[in-house]
Write a structure and sequence with these properties.
The chain has helices spanning about 5-15, 20-25, 30-35, 45-65. The chain is mostly helical. α1 (about 5-15) packs parallel to α4 (about 45-65). The N and C termini lie far apart (about 40 Å).
Length: about 70
């Protein structure tokens, strides 16, 4: 799977649209749009950091829900 496809999958897993996702990570919308369209490549290290943050926040939400 291409990194571009993984980026789309990651964004969709959050339920955010492109604008929300780019704002959440502080990435210019146009840059993010170019990544998803394949006009530019997302740096792999940056994708891995975004993926890690999304994963950790989902885990934190799950733990918080379990303790309630």
């Amino acid at each position: 799977m291409e990194l571009r496809e993984e980026l789309i999958r990651l964004r969709e897993s959050t339920g955010m649209n492109k604008k929300q996702f780019s704002e959440y990570f502080g990435i210019p919308y146009r840059t993010f749009q170019d990544w998803e369209l394949g006009n530019r490549r997302v740096p792999e290290y940056l994708f891995r950091l975004m993926e890690y943050k999304v994963r950790m926040e989902k885990l934190a939400e799950k733990n918080q829900d379990d303790s309630v």
